[in-house]
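To assess whether the prediction recovers the assembly geometry, we first specified each molecular entity separately, as shown.
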Amino acid sequence: MNDKICLVTGANSGIGKVTAKVLAAGGVTVIMVCRNRDKGEAARHEIVGKTRNENVELMIADFSDLRQVRRLAAEVKAKYSRLHTLVNNAGAYNGKRMITADGYEMTFAVNHLGYFLLTVELLDLLKSSAPARIVNVASEAHRNSHINFDDLNLENGYSGWKAYAQSKLANVLFTYKLASKLEGTGATANCMHPGFVGTNIFNHVKGIGGKIVRLITPFMRTPEKGADTVIWLASSPEVEGITGRYFIDRKDRQSNQESYNVAIASRLWEVSEEMIRAAVG
Ligand SMILES: NC(=O)c1ccc[n+]([C@@H]2O[C@H](COP(=O)([O-])OP(=O)(O)OC[C@H]3O[C@@H](n4cnc5c(N)ncnc54)[C@H](OP(=O)(O)O)[C@@H]3O)[C@@H](O)[C@H]2O)c1
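The predicted structure of the complete assembly is given in tokenized form:
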């Protein structure tokens, strides 16, 4: 992996931070993407100190702002002529409904449109660096969800879980459609569930659910264990050429029925493009 360049989003915390650290320890050049410079610098400093790999760079983008996602992709392309692995990991759970500056529901915007736009903008670079890999961190939360095209912004009956689950189903649908578009290019796309991991993501769960999550957090998986399948998909020769799959604990698993619906995946792709076009051209 020594000559490889990998980009990891949400790399200052939880699963993303462990992924960046382990890839850096393997000698990879790592581009850490974080939204907060101080938190990102602290994580970068720790990773360089622990791995002795100086080739760890920090780039800043808030995925709730599509202009920033596009600017990030431009920065990557200006600086790097190759990119071998993209790990879309930055994600959030929002107990309260919020709207981004682009006018979209925050969870869908960050967890899906962020993955989508960054990937699409970096696709030519990834393809020209093939063999290349895209790893989308999804979740079992997708299991009982479906994409409500009539109300993607969840104006009616918002709940944090509903928004989160829909965004994670979008990650799976996006992965499968992307994999089909990438056939024959030498670039692969897979998604995965990391288990229930004791990270910061559920800090914003409200009410009794929040209390329960905080009580059980110490008994959840460690971020190291949660990142294992991400790192394996990002770097192991065992999955070279494997594409369009959903993994849990390094095992190929069935995702929910709707995720295999190619018409829904195509519609989601088109709607995502339209939403981005409407917001940032
Ligand atoms: N933990 C679990 O049990 C679990 C289960 C299934 C799937 N996942 C998925 O795993 C991924 C990583 O989550 P985690 O559990 O490691 O949680 P985490 O510790 O909260 O890490 C999430 C990362 O995403 C970043 N992020 C959030 N909103 C962002 C935004 N608007 N722009 C840019 N970055 C943003 C966070 O930055 P800040 O530190 O600045 O907030 C942080 O670096 C997520 O996609 C999540 O859906 C987690």
